[in-house]
Amino acid sequence: MTATVGRRLAAEFTGTGLLVAVVVGSGIAATSLTTDAALRLLVNSLVTAMGLAVLILTFAPAGGAHFNPLVTAADWVLGRRTHHRYSLGEAAAVICAQVAGAIGGAALADAMFGQAVLSPSRTGRTGPPLLLSEVVATAGLLLVIVTLSRTGRTKHAPWAVGAWIGAAYWFTASTSFANPAVTIGRTLTTTYAGIAPGSAPAFIAAQAVGATFGTLLAVTIHPVTSAPAPADTPAQLAG
Amino acid sequence: MTATVGRRLAAEFTGTGLLVAVVVGSGIAATSLTTDAALRLLVNSLVTAMGLAVLILTFAPAGGAHFNPLVTAADWVLGRRTHHRYSLGEAAAVICAQVAGAIGGAALADAMFGQAVLSPSRTGRTGPPLLLSEVVATAGLLLVIVTLSRTGRTKHAPWAVGAWIGAAYWFTASTSFANPAVTIGRTLTTTYAGIAPGSAPAFIAAQAVGATFGTLLAVTIHPVTSAPAPADTPAQLAG
Amino acid sequence: MTATVGRRLAAEFTGTGLLVAVVVGSGIAATSLTTDAALRLLVNSLVTAMGLAVLILTFAPAGGAHFNPLVTAADWVLGRRTHHRYSLGEAAAVICAQVAGAIGGAALADAMFGQAVLSPSRTGRTGPPLLLSEVVATAGLLLVIVTLSRTGRTKHAPWAVGAWIGAAYWFTASTSFANPAVTIGRTLTTTYAGIAPGSAPAFIAAQAVGATFGTLLAVTIHPVTSAPAPADTPAQLAG
Amino acid sequence: MTATVGRRLAAEFTGTGLLVAVVVGSGIAATSLTTDAALRLLVNSLVTAMGLAVLILTFAPAGGAHFNPLVTAADWVLGRRTHHRYSLGEAAAVICAQVAGAIGGAALADAMFGQAVLSPSRTGRTGPPLLLSEVVATAGLLLVIVTLSRTGRTKHAPWAVGAWIGAAYWFTASTSFANPAVTIGRTLTTTYAGIAPGSAPAFIAAQAVGATFGTLLAVTIHPVTSAPAPADTPAQLAG
Questions:
Q1: How many angstroms separate the Cα of A53 from the Cα of each of A46, A66, C38, D152, D156?
Q2: Average pLDDT over residues A231-235
Q3: Per the CB < 8 Å rule, is B153 touching C36?
């Protein structure tokens, strides 16, 4: 493992961990402070949007700030024939770092609020509307990321991705998990943002379907890759 | 139909569809979570602002990210004598894609929340204050877009247009539809964001009046077109 | 009157008018939708921040997007010995356009909501804490604007000024009018955002004191003017 | 003391003062307008995020806009072997200006709202969850700032730092003070944002631990300093 790969794994572990801490922690705080369900979700969504944007800005130079196995998978597939290519082993290691970070982030949030740490959630999230929602939210996420990459505008990714997820909390029925690593992390908290382990596989499958659809749509609309992004912008997805 | 036109139609269909899904879906979620009418509209307006900005960022390179027949009309009229010109047939096809996307987006949002799909709204929205509001909201929208285009600053369009619509939800009495395609899409949901089909024609007429006024004002204040926008920014309106 | 001056006056009239319409209109809507006083002010402040940012972006190229007699006054004084200089008559005309626009904007908002048009407010706003608040809010506003101008970074002015005013709604006791033209416009509405005509002179005097202080502080910290802003950014204040 | 150092001290004093005024003042206003605890904290967090971003934008050119002794300490340590280096005495003077400004800002906010000025807070904030929260919030803050500096992207610092702190109000249990100078200032208000003097030392110690950890993590992930930031961006941290 080279130093560069090591730094990338550290960035993906830390970034995904802080992202889950933001999601879970703000859910705990909002739940404890109000009984209004819309105000709780408004806090959760705005805080996630702000936190996600900052984390992408911070960790992008160290290797893309994916924080999401489906983004890494799309990046690996689309980058195979470019100079951005990296090995399947590195992609797998990145995904492992994301999942480990997500679990650590859930534990960190619960510890900060004095909650039980690493207890499985009992919040069932099931049914066709929620799964359709995950398809739509994840399709849109990949559509945004792949399009920005293929048009050489990844400098817009931090705030655009934050805004997309912030909006998708509300316009989908599932509050837009859209991320298998984050979904796994959220199975291990008994608080507001949790999801029962039994509900996770269908969520992750729906996310994979959506990611495939969104990536294909982006590639169809933008068949030719633009020039690479300027050096100072994050290379979130290779083209 | 060339590949480029096909991609533009796909972008306008998908973008307008997701925009209406954002508007309708967030309205359903907000209504189900709180009884406070201001909190509902705050959610609806902030989510629309974020979602609209991301969608413009994402779809602009494929053909302008108009999502709005009045923006396309202004673009077509103002671009006739420039190298941005395109045929009346292409403009009409773009508008058809926008309307079809808007209807699809309303259906998608209702499906995600398990609501009746493609049922006509029974929410009447009538009266001079609401029509004056649509004139003002749409005039301002075109003033913003045409001015940014004519001063070579369309790179600001995504967040500026999102912020304008987000603000206009509140400072107008109509919650600022400001878009005939979106208005048609919103006739086909029985939820919070719906508008009765009978109320739509007057809304659309008021929007057309406002768009004309806003475009003329922008052209009057900026009679000479600036240099074209840099290559990496969306050409939202030809000059 | 040259065409350029005419366009500047049109921009200042329209921009200030829409700004007051945003402030007054969102206040009416928020008041009608909730009884929670904090939610009302949150709506009013966020909508003003978004609206103000868009309006500055839109109208800056036509002559600075001041919308505020104290900004125009500071610009005129600081620009006298530079190539940005313009006549005292032009400055006076700009201020008249701002005041006329503000009055028109209040009337427009009241008309959009079916309220009495151009009726004087009966909302007294008096006392040392409120006047100190106006000093602080206006000092900060001029500190931000003059500093961005003197450091060649006026491209940041739209969102920075919007954020400053949005924040100042809350951290001052007066909800931060910080603008004599807007203050005059707000004397002519009986709604949430109004101010009784008898309270206006002291507000305006406090604003003038704050503007003087903020401008002097900015000039002290940045005694040398930086290079002019790039051509595509608004020249909000001459150096 | 050279003129440049004097201007830097004036900027740090004023900027930190206005930051504390924003935090304390918005807390007073929110508390007076609603009984909903989540709405109070939402106002406090959003207003702080907006205000902090503007203040960094405004004061960065005069010397970095640290407003935080731990940021100054990290900057001094990391900058020792670069051309950004400055004396230990200057760093100490900057920190004194920050603390003095923070105290002044608390007094200013209380004066604007007619509250007792410079009275010690009686709000105890203690316990392991809160101290862990301060470690996490401050580690993340330094991670963001040092990373942006070492990757030559300090132009993103204003909005990124604002968003980080705005999010950390919610995802930590301590509402994220993350700043020793601000913590000291907040001991001197009896209002919502106050902290009892007896709780401050442990908070500050936790912040120092977090800052050390965050700085080391950023330096580990980005061992080589990038090219200096472009001239028009704030040099928030030397490399």
A1: 11, 12, 27, 18, 11
A2: 37
A3: no
